[in-house]
Design goal:
Layout: H1 17-21, H2 27-54, H3 70-81, H4 85-94, H5 103-114
Helix pairs in contact: 2-3, 2-4
């Protein structure tokens, strides 16, 4: 998922709200779009992490036989250091890398053309 290098900051950054409202004309719509994209990124990251950690899972009946695996710890630390999905989504939206459409606007356009 996060194979491509991004220059997304890993901390909170002050952003201009006017820039976010430009593509949609509405700040609320922009926030909803970024929120949905952040959920997609989060789900992708979670599934990738679970897939990598699945290699290390062992099926034992007792809890006392827990072994510490250094590779598993390193993978977990790597994912913890990645930028948060909301920051990645905001950066993608700001750079125009997010595709979005409003189905209500499309319906209104079709109705206008039909009249």
């Amino acid at each position: 998922m996060m194979k491509k290098k991004t220059n997304t900051p890993s901390t909170t950054v002050t952003r201009d709200l006017e820039k976010f409202s430009e593509p949609t004309g509405n700040l609320y719509e922009s926030v909803v779009i970024m929120s949905k994209r952040a959920n997609q990124i989060s789900a992708d990251m979670k599934s990738a992490l679970e897939q990598k950690l699945q290699e290390f899972s062992t099926y034992t009946d007792t809890l006392e036989e827990y072994t510490e695996n250094q590779e598993q710890i390193e993978i977990s630390k790597y994912y913890e250091r990645l930028p948060k999905p909301s920051l990645v989504a905001a950066k993608e939206f700001e750079e125009g890398e997010v595709y979005f459409r409003n189905p209500l606007e499309q319906v209104e356009e079709e109705e206008d053309q039909g009249l």
